[in-house]
């Protein structure tokens, strides 16, 4: 209990500091890295012919999609020919076509769903040149989109910011420096970072053990900093080499929580009047508080469920003082595992330090619900954008109830925006529920289910929730490396990512072009505690109404079965 | 159209630049610094006993003989195998399929989980006659997430002491001492759990046995 609280206490000052830094980088203000980084950036601009001119929303999204498409082709090509390239001491073969498609979409969309196992499926070169590269660029793409979105909310024109400049600045000034430091901390704890081949050793019982090595730490750090989540090894951050100690576990959790929270802080600072000095803008604080309360509810529910253990193991006469330990690591125990589980799904990282398939039914429902909501901090900027959809929806509904004109940050929310907001909120549940329905009605879909009964449905729901929310964790029992699962989850990730970003930027562009109205007595206040609670209520109502039937058939049924 | 090509060119060049920066320069730079500062850890924290590498400080190993402590259940048998395990059978399948990690992924309601645990309890009780069923802590019969967990709880080590002492020919006090020296407490007394490092405890027992 105490260790969970302590980690969160360490988190708060870090996230505020990071938020200020992010704000400075976003708004092109001075930072202490400027003397070196300006030179690096200018060299990149010159090399790539980037002109640093402002873009309209449409141009911005075009540049985003175009560069992502090019990265997809480069990555796919490398995966298909990896066996012929260098840095492949363990002789790994080329990746199969549908699996390559799934892998590339997965990493480009920042999902990091993995239908392969790293130690047997990727060469060291592919781990670096495809996986590590995409972890940087997909995270930077998300942050860039979020910056573009937030800037438009507070700007008076739609022509603002350049995608390529944002992409470069996020990578050179934020992602690489932090990842470098975190990587070294992880190595100091015991994560390997080498290009040597795997080791085979002789055990004291006279048998052999294979030890898989590689450039683990450099991938592991950006995996969390960029809220990517795709592990070097098949078992992700449960493996001792990816997450050797409790210290590394805390560092990894703080890493993944840092930047999504910082986005909210940075947004708060953007809204604050330029001349005011603020630690935490009021509007940002309201949103941060709403996210924080939803996070705390999930954390408490998951911790209670996991500490209670599995009643079926109780029946066998085993003492479960430690809680439910199936699928968990001894060095983390229940407390560190639960915090990791809730954080990785709230911040949509998708790395796991315990196996989610083996969580107790209600303990497993929390991560699933976090991804279904997809607004509790959320990953790499897009979480804030999703939350802003709910913020505007809340303003709209509240204003309807009290008979005022809906207005947010001085811009009126009208019919066109509301249509897009409704569409945007509906896409996510539609992807999850429709694909799940498809999977459970086709033989190819059912073939992947490995656990009997209600838990089988949970496996399916979790996989699509994870895909659409661009999370990437899984109920890993699912036998998901088949053409059906590779293709459907690939599409779910693709639509979940790009449709949302396109619509959200379109909404921001519409708002940016509107006239600014000053607040009057009649305007609904959006920066007080009242609004926080309205926001939570709307998020829970929409989330619960959409997903409750599916959850009742999956985890809730399973819970009632094993508790009866 | 001209605008599109100009954008495409910028997108391509910036992608290629990032490919080299993030995909090669960054990981190789980390490798260089890590190898220089933390050479032992960066190469897998390998344990060297008299010039032979016997394992890694970070990874668990499968132990089956009674004179050593047993670790947690592993779905991949800790990537430990004997020569027979890599010989293909009539169907061309091998017991050991190459290095991996993971767990059984049995849901809490899965009957297979119940069967596996019951089987493990019975064989454990058979090998440790003095131990009652209720004394077995949950971590000893549940599978770890990675299949490579190097630790067990302190309780799980304590209930194995009698067996280990008898089979290894050491006194119970000596074995207790081994457990004590290989117990790792919570970090800063708060974070994580108290635990015993199985491989290092067994190495100590191995050394004591060869000394005798």
Automatic annotation (TrEMBL), chain A:
<feature type="transmembrane region" description="Helical">
    <location>
        <begin position="6"/>
        <end position="23"/>
    </location>
</feature>
<feature type="transmembrane region" description="Helical">
    <location>
        <begin position="124"/>
        <end position="149"/>
    </location>
</feature>
<protein>
    <recommendedName>
        <fullName>Potassium-transporting ATPase potassium-binding subunit</fullName>
    </recommendedName>
</protein>
<feature type="transmembrane region" description="Helical">
    <location>
        <begin position="533"/>
        <end position="556"/>
    </location>
</feature>
<keyword id="KW-0406">Ion transport</keyword>
<dbReference type="Pfam" id="PF03814">
    <property type="entry name" value="KdpA"/>
</dbReference>
<dbReference type="InterPro" id="IPR004623">
    <property type="entry name" value="KdpA"/>
</dbReference>
<keyword id="KW-1003">Cell membrane</keyword>
<keyword id="KW-1133">Transmembrane helix</keyword>
<feature type="transmembrane region" description="Helical">
    <location>
        <begin position="423"/>
        <end position="449"/>
    </location>
</feature>
<feature type="transmembrane region" description="Helical">
    <location>
        <begin position="383"/>
        <end position="402"/>
    </location>
</feature>
<keyword id="KW-0633">Potassium transport</keyword>
<keyword id="KW-0813">Transport</keyword>
<feature type="transmembrane region" description="Helical">
    <location>
        <begin position="491"/>
        <end position="512"/>
    </location>
</feature>
<feature type="transmembrane region" description="Helical">
    <location>
        <begin position="60"/>
        <end position="79"/>
    </location>
</feature>
<comment type="subunit">
    <text>The system is composed of three essential subunits: KdpA, KdpB and KdpC.</text>
</comment>
<comment type="similarity">
    <text>Belongs to the KdpA family.</text>
</comment>
<feature type="transmembrane region" description="Helical">
    <location>
        <begin position="253"/>
        <end position="272"/>
    </location>
</feature>
<comment type="function">
    <text>Part of the high-affinity ATP-driven potassium transport (or Kdp) system, which catalyzes the hydrolysis of ATP coupled with the electrogenic transport of potassium into the cytoplasm. This subunit binds the extracellular potassium ions and delivers the ions to the membrane domain of KdpB through an intramembrane tunnel.</text>
</comment>
<keyword id="KW-0812">Transmembrane</keyword>
<keyword id="KW-0472">Membrane</keyword>
<feature type="transmembrane region" description="Helical">
    <location>
        <begin position="170"/>
        <end position="188"/>
    </location>
</feature>
From TrEMBL, chain B:
<comment type="function">
    <text>Part of the high-affinity ATP-driven potassium transport (or Kdp) system, which catalyzes the hydrolysis of ATP coupled with the electrogenic transport of potassium into the cytoplasm. This subunit acts as a catalytic chaperone that increases the ATP-binding affinity of the ATP-hydrolyzing subunit KdpB by the formation of a transient KdpB/KdpC/ATP ternary complex.</text>
</comment>
<comment type="subunit">
    <text>The system is composed of three essential subunits: KdpA, KdpB and KdpC.</text>
</comment>
<keyword id="KW-0406">Ion transport</keyword>
<keyword id="KW-0812">Transmembrane</keyword>
<keyword id="KW-0067">ATP-binding</keyword>
<keyword id="KW-0472">Membrane</keyword>
<comment type="similarity">
    <text>Belongs to the KdpC family.</text>
</comment>
<dbReference type="InterPro" id="IPR003820">
    <property type="entry name" value="KdpC"/>
</dbReference>
<dbReference type="Pfam" id="PF02669">
    <property type="entry name" value="KdpC"/>
</dbReference>
<keyword id="KW-0547">Nucleotide-binding</keyword>
<keyword id="KW-1133">Transmembrane helix</keyword>
<keyword id="KW-1003">Cell membrane</keyword>
<keyword id="KW-0633">Potassium transport</keyword>
<keyword id="KW-0813">Transport</keyword>
<protein>
    <recommendedName>
        <fullName>Potassium-transporting ATPase KdpC subunit</fullName>
    </recommendedName>
</protein>
<keyword id="KW-0630">Potassium</keyword>
